[in-house]
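The instructor's notes for this session suggest beginning with a concrete chain rather than abstract definitions. Hand out the sequence below and ask the class to guess, before any prediction is shown, which regions might be ordered.
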Amino acid sequence: MYRFKRLLATAMWVFIAQTLQAQKHYNAWFRSTLSVPVGEKFKVDNEFQHRRQSGFQNGNMLDNDLMFTFRNWVHYQHNPNLKFSVSPFAYFSHYRIIQDKPDKEAAPNSEVRFSVAEELQHKIYKRIYLVNRNALEYRIINNQQPNVIRFRTRFGGRYELTEQLKLTLFDEFFINVTGTSSAQFPDHNRTGLNIEYSVLPNLKFDVGYIYLIRFSVPSASGNIRLYENNMFLNLTYQLKNNK
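After discussion, reveal the predicted structure:
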């Protein structure tokens, strides 16, 4: 408990009083998901993700590779308001965040990740919901020892304009529980807007914006705080359940 309080105090200090150099970055995130229902309560998702980033001293968010990902999820819908999820395998190829010219030529790092999550929603008024998602990730990164356990929590509100169109505002905070120094206890924070639109009963897309703050990013001049502007587009296709 003492160690946790010390880490929490350090995180608050870094968040409030950090005076390190800051940089801005621009990214575009794309994700496609094939969703396969298994019975009434289970569903298996297979995700493919690609992220692009701006280059050295430019704002072109499509300029360079940032990340490639394959991940699968197994979801269990316990009831209409509570869902449990397990990701038994995910593979990430991370390219270096470009802050200097040589970063563009750096080889990507690979990561294998295992995750568990729960997602809860609560209806507060007609078509307005409070939503919360908590997840724990075990990250095996090829150039980093020891492995990292990271906790993430997201809280927000969703307004369902129609059955096909939904608007969500959220904030998600990431902390490194083990595998890093106390100065890296706070990892990053995301604040975003998501618009979900169901084109067909089995096809939907999400489009939105995420403002991201990375609290400690290695650079040639030492660790810095990095601010990112991210536009994203997610496409999800669900196969029909024959049962």
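Then share the key points. Confidence is low (pLDDT under 50) at residues 7-21. The helical segments are 2-17.
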